Amino acid sequence: SQTIHQWPATLVQPVGSPLSLECTVEGTSNPNLYWYRQAAGRGLQLLFYSVGIGQISSEVPQNLSASRPQDRQFILSSKKLLLSDSGFYLCAWRPTDRGNSPLHFGNGTRLTVT
Amino acid sequence: AQRVTQPEKLLSVFKGAPVELKCNYSYSGSPELFWYVQYSRQRLQLLLRHISRESIKGFTADLNKGETSFHLKKPFAQEEDSAMYYCALSGISGNTPLVFGKGTRLSVIA
Q1: Smallest CA–CA separation between A16 and chain B, in Å?
Q2: Which of A20, A110, B1, B12 is 20 to 30 A away from residue B23, measured at CA?
Q3: Could you say which of 2.60.40.10, 3.10.20.740, 1.10.10.10, 3.40.50.920 is the CATH number of the domain covering A3-113?
C-alpha cells in the first residue's frame, strides 16, 4: 500500500534562517506531488506541484521554493524565512493517470517563524 | 484559471437538522469535483468525489454544471459531522493541480 511521510511534525525557526521540509511517498511510482499551506481563513493554498522529477510548477510567488530530486521525494525550501511564512504545510500525492484521482495527504508540518 | 468558492466560513446547525455546505467553482474545462474533510486532530481526507455518485457517511453532492455548483448535503446532521470541509476542483487530466476552497467549519450542536 502507498504511504506518505512528511517531517518534521513541528518546527520553530528564527526569521532569516533557512528551511527544508521533506516529503516522501512509498508504494507508488511517478506520483504527482503537491505542497499546500493551510491557514485559518485562507483554507488550503496550493504552493507548488510536480508531475515529474525536476518539474516544478509554482502557483504563488513567494519566499519559498520546491524541488523534486527523486521520483518520490518532494522538498520545500527557503533561504531566509519571513514571519509570514509561519503556517501549517501539507504535502500530498496522487496518481498521474486521472484527474478524478483523490489526493492523499501527509500529517503536515507546523512551522512557527519567530 | 481554476477557482473554488465556499461562501460560508462557519455553519452551525442543530443535531438532526439538514445540512448544506455550498461550493461554487470556475473552470473553463471539464471539472472533477471533490469534498475533503478534516476532523479534529486528524489528517485531511477525501469524503467524496462527484464521479463516484455515492453517499458517504450520509453525505451526497451533485455536480450542477449549469450553476457551476457542487453543494454537499446531508438530511440529518450528527454531532460527529463537526469538522472542517473543503471543496476541491481538478481538471480531467491527472497532471492538473487540485485547487481547494477556503473551507467551511461545520459545527453540529446537540
Answers
A1: 29
A2: A110
A3: 2.60.40.10
